[in-house]
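Hey Z.,

So I finally got round to the adenosine monophosphate thing we talked about over coffee. Here's the setup:
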Amino acid sequence: MAKLTTGPLGPGSVIGILGGGQLGRMTALAAARLGYKVHVYCPDPSAPAKHVSNVSTTASYEDSSQLSEFARSVDVVTFEFENIPTTAIVTVSEIKPVRPHCRALEIAQDRIVEKKFLSSLGISTTPYWSVRDVNELEEALRSLNGSGVLKSARLGYDGKNQTRVSIGDQASVAWGAMNGKAGILEKWVNFDSEISVIVARSDDGTTATYDPVQNRHRRYILETTIAPAPIDPRVAEKAREIACEIAKAIDLVGVLAVEMFLTSDSELLVNEIAPRPHNSGHWTIDACSTSQFEQLVRAICGMPLGSTERHSDAEMHNLIGDAAEQWFQYLTEPGTILHLYGKSETRPGRKMGHVTRLKPIAAGNH
Ligand code: AMP
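And the result:
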């Protein structure tokens, strides 16, 4: 694996990003502000990150010669999309350092591996059953004793490949929705709220966490993030500790989001981890001195992490599908900050942009 041998990568260096979505776009914008150049690699020729980067490559993640050429043209590589095949990371990491390491991605790509990893750290997750076929699902449904959700183990996000199931349901019907892929049956958690924490970690082990935030989903897709989360400060502290523990255990260099369910008896169950900037951290662009995207750039380039301090309270709303068509209205609202991702095609459920609304820090929120 290639290592950073020349110390910190200063402004002028080239950051390679695998993946070209809005997370890559906002990372590229943060990198540009610090004087870095960005080379985006992804198969979609009109990907949002390509609009704002210096160089781009349009090629498949299976094309090892294009991946090698990309790696040779940059100084360090990161990824903004969880489902990049790990073979692509391996090819690139033989030539240039990839940060976070491939292992972090391997864990996050598979819900079963992820849950086992979290359990090995003594971190609580939702009760789950690994199901590889309809018989295993039948058995798991018998143990479930209530309602649950059947998810594909790999390649699922924003509610894709997820089916609600209940005791007494026909296993064969639910299994049909899985297209023969290995899955995971999770117990449905009647949580009080959903929160997440974003932690940045540099290669010397320094960590910095942002305030835990509350997330509201609609049809499994994040709709609103409230910063800070209106929760007991002791729970918030515990959530930060969990995030730091996971970051340390995967030897993170970069940023990591940890999504958790908060139960009525103040227990935190980790639902998912993502070793990349996260939708629930978009508010940090407008409400913190250093955004999650700038932290990623700093961490992977060996620069000191910035302050995660919040100068305002914030609410972030995703603009999903045709909600982004209200852009003119948002521009007229004082205190509303509009971010559009430059996607040419609007589709239901597609994240087209977001708005952040800032408020002075409320008493008791310091
Ligand atoms: P995920 O793809 O696992 O992040 O799921 C998307 C959203 O679906 C979560 O943020 C929750 O709102 C909901 N969800 C997923 N799994 C569960 C569960 N086991 N219990 C309750 N809600 C869930």
